[in-house]
């Protein structure tokens, strides 16, 4: 039930939905003062949440930085970076694919000895396609040996990522040095969840940064659809972080 409710919440936290709701209220109300109020609020909401500079600065201050360079036994790659291309039944990468690509680079550099793919299916209907299985096929395709790959293909969220991945590592190598590889904006929440489930120290490697370190003139005045998406991403993380803190 919680899993289904979380999917509904993802729809409701979209700022563009709030703008449309305000516009609909403005159209439905018969009172001129309320109509004006709703229209002004919709414009304020739209320009605030579509401003690239505002959301860029906020995300940049929230995202994690790189850990100190050292060697790790296992690099856990959190899912959400790909899906299934139904045209050829192969892996289809999305905007978070840097999680996997950085893990591959870390393995090639010798920073991590093994890559643990942690992701099942987050689809409410089709649960047969497991993201970790798709990624496994890709890693084999590019020459990563079986001995360097671990699979956890049952998790549907970050809590299950931590639970199942750490349990697998405890069986394979209880004293392993672990590096969690995920998006920079996801690390604060991932750290809260993983650190609660183990007594061992875990490090976190940020990927696909969403915040900007430099801005163009257009970021200050031109509405951006990517800014709207960035707010949605932030709200999702903040709500998840709050819920996870309350749940303990």
Could you explain how this protein is built, in words?
The chain is α/β, with parallel strands linked by helices and 248 residues long. It folds into two domains: 2-62 and 221-247, no CATH class; 72-207, HUPs (Rossmann fold). It has helices spanning 2-12, 15-28, 32-49, 52-62, 98-109, 131-141, 158-172, 187-196, 218-221, 225-247; strands at residues 72-78, 82-85, 90-93, 112-118, 149-152, 178-183, 202-207. The strands form two sheets. The chain has a five-stranded parallel sheet, sandwiched between helices. Helix 6 (131-141) links the parallel strand 4 and strand 5. The longest helix has 23 residues, at 225-247. 30% of the residues are buried. The mean pLDDT is 91.
Radius of gyration: 21 Å
Q: Which structural class do the helices and strands define?
A: alpha/beta
Question: What separation lies between the terminal Cα atoms?
Answer: 19 Å
Specify the CATH class of the largest domain: Alpha Beta
Helix tally? 10
CATH H level, superfamily name of the largest domain: HUPs
Which strand order does the major sheet show? Answer: 5-4-1-6-7
Task: Give the tally of structural domains.
Answer: 2
Major beta sheet summary: 5 strands, parallel
CATH level-3 fold name of the largest domain: Rossmann fold
Q: What's the architecture of the largest domain in CATH terms?
A: 3-Layer(aba) Sandwich
Strand content: 15-25%
Total E-strand runs: 7
Order of helices and strands: HHHHEEEHEHEHEHEHH
Overall 3D shape: elongated
Assembly type of the shown chains?
single chain
Helix content: 40-55%
Features:
5-stranded parallel β-sheet; Rossmann fold; 2 domains; alpha/beta; single chain; two-stranded antiparallel ribbon; 248 residues
């Amino acid at each position: 039930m919680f899993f289904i409710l979380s999917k509904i919440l993802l729809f409701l936290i979209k700022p563009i939905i709030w703008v449309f709701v305000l516009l609909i209220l403005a159209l439905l109300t018969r009172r001129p003062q309320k109509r004006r109020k709703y229209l002004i609020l919709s414009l304020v909401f739209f320009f605030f949440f579509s401003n690239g500079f505002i959301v860029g600065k906020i995300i940049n201050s929230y995202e994690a930085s790189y850990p100190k360079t050292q060697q790790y036994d296992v690099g856990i790659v959190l899912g959400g970076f790909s899906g299934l291309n139904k045209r050829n039944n192969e892996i289809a990468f999305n905007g978070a694919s840097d999680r996997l690509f950085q893990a591959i680079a870390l393995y090639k550099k010798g920073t991590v000895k093994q890559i643990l793919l942690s992701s099942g299916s987050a689809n409410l209907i089709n649960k047969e396609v497991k993201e970790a299985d798709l990624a496994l096929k890709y890693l084999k395709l590019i020459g990563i040996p079986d001995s360097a790959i671990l699979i956890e293909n049952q998790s549907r969220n970050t809590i299950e990522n931590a639970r199942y991945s750490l349990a697998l590592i405890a069986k394979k190598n209880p004293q392993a040095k672990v590096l969690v590889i995920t998006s920079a904006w996801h690390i604060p929440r991932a750290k809260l969840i993983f650190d609660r489930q183990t007594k061992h120290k875990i490090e976190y490697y940020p990927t696909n940064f969403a915040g900007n370190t430099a801005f163009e003139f257009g970021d200050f005045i031109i509405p951006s659809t990517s800014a709207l998406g960035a707010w949605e991403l932030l709200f999702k993380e903040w709500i998840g972080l709050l819920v996870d803190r309350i749940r303990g």
